[in-house]
UniProtKB/TrEMBL annotation:
<dbReference type="InterPro" id="IPR009057">
    <property type="entry name" value="Homeodomain-like_sf"/>
</dbReference>
<feature type="DNA-binding region" description="H-T-H motif">
    <location>
        <begin position="51"/>
        <end position="70"/>
    </location>
</feature>
<dbReference type="InterPro" id="IPR036271">
    <property type="entry name" value="Tet_transcr_reg_TetR-rel_C_sf"/>
</dbReference>
<dbReference type="Pfam" id="PF00440">
    <property type="entry name" value="TetR_N"/>
</dbReference>
<keyword id="KW-0238">DNA-binding</keyword>
<feature type="domain" description="HTH tetR-type">
    <location>
        <begin position="28"/>
        <end position="88"/>
    </location>
</feature>
<dbReference type="InterPro" id="IPR001647">
    <property type="entry name" value="HTH_TetR"/>
</dbReference>
<keyword id="KW-0805">Transcription regulation</keyword>
<protein>
    <submittedName>
        <fullName>TetR/AcrR family transcriptional regulator</fullName>
    </submittedName>
</protein>
<keyword id="KW-0804">Transcription</keyword>
């Protein structure tokens, strides 16, 4: 890392992995198979359209195995959300250990968030499930948490003198999250989402940050960074 707090060309985002608590290996594998199967069914059919029988067929498990871990489909969805949130905190912690300034952290964290949307089966399934009215409360909470974390990162950037004078961290955070969510909803697949997010930052960084920080970012090669590897996301979640 350079003394300016930039990543010196290291733009790789951490790949999300399991964050579930330690348990006996067989029990852990079964629970992970159920969560992956639920995520797949939610992603394909939505929360209401995913029957428990479909989830069990996908997981190759029995009702007894399901009810040993989860009392209902909603409990399964809530456990999936907990896993997604806990594994996200592992990603944030790993980025934090790089010693970057707040704006670089925000860019890399957003990259990681988008990459999980693109390729992490748990996140993809959870995201679609939270669009269901029965889980709306959890979806609203998730969105608020993302906005809050983005605003905190921008407040840190402001305190470090990295933001333009007229930028309000709270309003900027709402704009970033709203644009990212909009890009996700209209993107034609992962490659298009990645491209749209690059274009978003090309527009936002020059008006959000100081001239000095913008120049550093433009010279960094960030726009030409490697795209996330979908294979790594799949293999990281093998039960």
């Amino acid at each position: 890392m350079s003394s300016s707090g930039s990543p010196s060309g290291d733009f790789a985002v951490p790949v999300s992995a399991w964050a579930d608590p330690d348990a006996k290996e067989r029990t852990r594998r079964t629970r992970r198979r159920l969560l992956l199967a639920a995520a797949d069914c939610f992603s394909t059919h939505g929360y209401h359209g995913a029957a428990l029988s479909d989830i069990l067929t996908s997981a190759g498990l029995t009702k007894g195995a399901l009810y040993f871990h989860f009392s209902s489909k909603q409990a399964l969805a809530e456990a999936l959300l907990t896993e997604v949130c806990d594994s996200w905190m592992q990603v944030v912690d790993e980025i934090g250990r790089r010693g970057l300034d707040a704006m670089w952290r925000l860019l890399l964290e957003t990259d990681a968030y988008v990459a999980r949307w693109m390729y992490d089966p748990l996140v993809r399934g959870c995201s679609r499930a939270l669009a269901d009215p029965d889980l709306r409360e959890h979806g609203v909470e998730w969105q608020a948490g993302w906005e809050g974390a983005t605003a905190e990162r921008l407040r840190q950037a402001s305190a470090a003198g990295l933001l333009a004078d007229n930028v309000d961290p709270g309003r900027a955070a709402r704009a970033v999250v709203a644009i990212a969510a909009g890009n996700h909803s209209i993107a034609d697949g992962p490659d298009d989402l990645w491209t749209r997010m690059n274009e978003t930052w090309e527009g936002l960084v020059p008006i959000m940050t100081t001239r000095e920080w913008t120049a550093q970012w433009q010279a960094s090669g960030w726009l030409d960074r490697p795209r996330p590897d979908p294979v790594r996301y799949r293999t990281a979640l093998v039960p």
